[in-house]
Amino acid sequence: FKTKKQWNWYLFAFLSTACFVSSLGVAQYIGSFGDFFLSTKSWGRTYSTLGNYTYFGTFSLFTVFISLHLLIKKQFVLLSSLSLLLGTVSIFLASSRGSFIGLIIGLLVFLIAKGCTLSNKWRYWIAISILFFSFLGAVGHKYRTQSWIKHVPNLGNFFDIRIKGTGETRLIAWDIALKAAQVRPLFGWGY
């Protein structure tokens, strides 16, 4: 895109699509469509029209940060607010640990970066917010085996981090990828 107007049309189309996809995800979670359309046979995880809850969570993560950016710039305020809300809810409904961790780390980086540009009063509140959420994370980790944490969408997955099972396979895959990158660092194995 070459002009600001083209970018604005693109962002408007993205947010509109994101609202549609997220709304379908919420309807899927509620069960409005029954079993014939967008069923939730994926262990209660929502995937909307994307067919995979990890893709849906990642798409929702992009939606949240693009909406947040546009809200700060005061562009498409109503649509950005709606897509921010639906995107955040969709991350929880997708129950994808990766997108949830991405949301937490992204918000943490955003708060730290924003804190560097604001006055001391705002820095104080940002530091308090970071400490508060760190405290919540520590409490969640301590009580991760409790049923009240396991039954909240995404929190149960977030605090249930184990190395055995898929964690072992991921570590093996990362080890292979690092070794492959050392052997062919420039073009990789696909060239």
Please explain how this structure is put together.
- The chain is an all-alpha fold and 191 residues long.
- The protein has eight helices and no strands.
- α1 crosses α3 and α2 runs antiparallel to α3.
Ends apart, CA distance between termini? 30 Å
Structural class: mainly alpha
Q: Would you count the extended β strands for me?
A: 0
The largest pleated sheet is described as:
none
Oligomeric state of the chains in view? single chain
Number of helices: 8
Rough outline: globular
Question: What is the helix content?
Answer: over 70%
What are the SSEs and their pairings?
Layout: H1 4-30, H2 53-72, H3 77-94, H4 97-117, H5 120-142, H6 147-150, H7 155-159, H8 166-183
Helix pairs in contact: 1-2, 1-3, 2-3, 2-4, 4-5
Summarize the structure.
This protein is 71% helix and 0% strand. Helix 2 packs parallel to helix 4 (97-117).
Key features?
191 residues, mainly alpha, 8 helices
